[in-house]
Amino acid sequence: MITVLQLAGGFVLLLFGAEYLVRGAVSLANRLNISPMIIGMTIVAYGTTAPELVVSLQAAFAGQPGIAVGNVVGSNIANILLILGTSAVILPIVTVPKVLYRDSAVMMGSALLFSALALTGVIDRWQGVLMFSALIVYSIYAYISERRRSKSAEANQATEESEEGPKSVWLAVLAIAGGVTAVIIGAKLLVTGAIDAARFLGVGEEVIGLTVVAIGTSLPELATAVVAALRKHSDLAVGNIIGANIYNMLAIMGLVSAVTPLTVPPQIMVFDLWFMLGVTAVLLSFVLFRKGLSRPVGVLFLSAFAGYTALQYYGVEKVFS
Predict the structure, then answer these.
(1) Can you tell me the distance from the alpha carbon of 229 to that of 236, in angstroms, rounded to the nearest whole number?
(2) Is residue 159 one of the residues assigned to a domain?
(3) Is 120 helix (H, G, I), strand (E, B) or coil?
(4) Which residue has the higher pLDDT, 42 or 80?
(5) Residue 157 binned pLDDT confidence (cut-offs 50, 70, 90)
(6) Domain limits at 120?
(7) I need a surface site. Which of 19, 158, 190, 260 has the fewest CB within 10 A?
(8) C-beta atoms surrounding 6 within 10 Å
(9) Residues 164, 165, 171, 173: is their CA dihedral positive or negative?
(10) Does residue 321 lie in a domain region?
(11) What's the predicted TM-score (pTM) here?
């Protein structure tokens, strides 16, 4: 009974929080005269990835590296296949490639950097510091470059799109903060119930991290993307996912491994890292060269995620042994 109430309460909080988060993010972009995609890559992405940070830190301190690493790798996979797939099915996503070149390159670069370090088997403290330092450099550069082009054609166009949401910067910030808080609490309730159920069924630690925990901690991004798509702001969803994936790799894994070295489970090194790199490359090929994701592509992404999840529970070692 308690698990059912947790799931129901978490779901309501996610929807409620996502509604205010999207309204606040779009309004803030309008007030500051910048693209909603940039808000998605920064404020929204940092806020919605908070559950991944909390869960990975808790797992690392509890001596559960499979959950800590699997949570982040699985979240990046879920962000692309599940969240953008769902968003594209609701409303086809249209992108402007030239706006995404820099951040797409950083997303792919951060995935490659993390994978290279993870393939050594142990991510040490100095490697964690390296990843987090890379995020700081990227954030400073992105801020400076966005200030320079804040009056560009893309930004001017963005300010004309919508006047919905709070009518001042401070009210927009409050709406974002309240929305982030609600989706984090909602995600926490859902994750707790899901982990209890999975452990009762005897599922392995790394599988829980890659699927149940990863999906649960990605629910803020999912709720935000669904509401953004329904409100015809798919650019916010894309920006959120790109920013979240960069933050997952560089900030979360950087901070966690800087605090305590992480041992990477063999399954993640053999299969899941490569799968994450593959879906990241596929996403970039669509948003940069095909200018978005159509509904059929969204269905393809969702099907791939369903297959990946089923493979985890069937047993990756059984397939590749």
Answers:
(1) 9
(2) no
(3) coil
(4) 80
(5) very low
(6) 2-150+165-316
(7) 260
(8) 19
(9) negative
(10) no
(11) 0.76
